[in-house]
Amino acid sequence: RAKEIKLKLGILLQKPDSAVDLVIPYNEKPEKPAKTQKPPLDEALQWRDSLDKILQNNYGLAGFKSFLKSEFSEENLEFWLACEEYRKIKSPAKMAEKAKKIYEEFIQTEAPKEVNIDHFTKDITMKNLVEPSPSSFDVAQKRIYALMEKDSLPRFVRSEFYQELIK
User: Is the distance from CB of 30 to CB of 15 less than 8 angstroms?
Assistant: First the structure.
């Protein structure tokens, strides 16, 4: 069973075929299956109730990301991860550069991976980007987190990958 899950996960994490899919909006290495071992059952069961638990576990994050890719809805997770990476930047110049990339990739209207946020949140984010700071994307990131928690997490928990994992 574990080999079957590993095979399915490996297939989902393969490199993209088209050049368009190779355009990565931020410094992200090509994905590889998580090198961590399968989590204990009790830990995996906690994922049903906590998006944080999934995001903090390499195996859970890889599975969640694969699931979202299979549904063509990975932009929310990619945005959330980009915001986490952005928050760690210390250099104002690098922060401004990264903020622009995140905005162009995820926030602006007709962005390649536009996330679904309301106009109020978009306006706040745009105002925050006048002078980029580690908290510039906080409001938008919290909205996307809430969306993933309310929408993506329940679908993931019902997915074949998760169901196989907890058997």
Answer: yes
Question: From the CA atom positions of the chain, what is the Rg in Å?
Answer: 17
CA distance 143 to 42: 29
Instruction: Tell me the pLDDT tens digit for each residue of 54-105.
Output: 999 998 999 999 999 998 889 999 999 999 999 999 999 999 999 999 999 9
In angstroms, the CA 67 to CA 160 distance is: 9
Nearby residues of 85 by Cβ (< 8 Å), 6 or more positions away: 26, 27, 98
CB-based contacts of 24, cutoff 8 Å, min separation 6 = none
Q: Which domains does the chain have, with CATH numbers?
A: 73-154 (1.10.167.10)
Cα dist from 160 to 5, 55, 107, whole Å: 9, 19, 31
- Going by C-beta distance under 8 Å and a sequence separation of 6 or more, which residues neighbour residue 47? 53, 54, 57, 60, 156, 157, 162
pTM recorded for the entire structure: 0.76
Instruction: Kindly state the tokens that stand for 119.
Output: 């106009």
Rounded-to-integer distance, Cα 128 and Cα 40, Å? 41
pLDDT digits (tens, 9 = 90+) for 131-159: 999 999 999 999 999 999 999 999 999 99
